[in-house]
Design a protein that fits this description.
There is one protein chain. The protein is an alpha+beta fold and 142 residues long. The protein is built from two helices and ten strands. The protein is elongated, with a radius of gyration of 23 Å. Mean pLDDT is 86; it is low at 23-31.
């Protein structure tokens, strides 16, 4: 075996030995176990029926980030927003009676879809796309 054959053999062998680790790392960065190929992530801790009864659900540690699900009773749909106020960073709360998201730190208010209706916030809340399969709720960044 000459030097060129030896270097080629060692190089290919080393690459093959590292391939499983490289592929596993790349896969971990692309998709979490709860994430589907379409990018949607299953919401844990609540079902559609429970959300309809409760009105809202907050998950500060969701795989997509802080998440507030809101059941819009009249429209019969779910809105999903990041509940972190864009003004001071407080967590907004859903007021079922007024059908509005209100910040406890100032008079800022948002619609269920995260649109500012009362300042001081100048930017809308971050929103998520929602899909429902049977009684299971899925979200992904919009």
């Amino acid at each position: 075996m000459n030097r060129r054959e030896f270097v080629a053999l060692v190089g290919v062998g080393g690459a093959m030995a590292c391939a499983p680790e490289i592929l596993a790392t790349a896969t971990d960065q692309e998709m979490t176990p709860a994430q589907a190929a379409d990018g949607f992530v299953k919401v844990t801790g609540i079902t559609l029926k429970e959300l309809e009864a409760k009105g809202s659900f907050l998950d500060k540690k969701s795989p997509v980030g802080s998440l507030l699900l809101i059941w819009e009773k009249k429209a019969k749909k779910i809105s999903a927003v990041n509940p972190t106020c864009t003004h001071e960073g407080c967590t907004v709360k859903w007021d079922t009676g007024a059908q509005i998201l209100a910040c406890p730190c100032h008079p800022g208010k948002f619609t269920a879809t995260g649109v500012v209706t009362n300042k001081p916030p100048k930017r809308n809340l971050t929103t998520y796309q929602v899909k429902v399969e049977k009684d299971v709720i899925f979200v992904k960044k919009a």
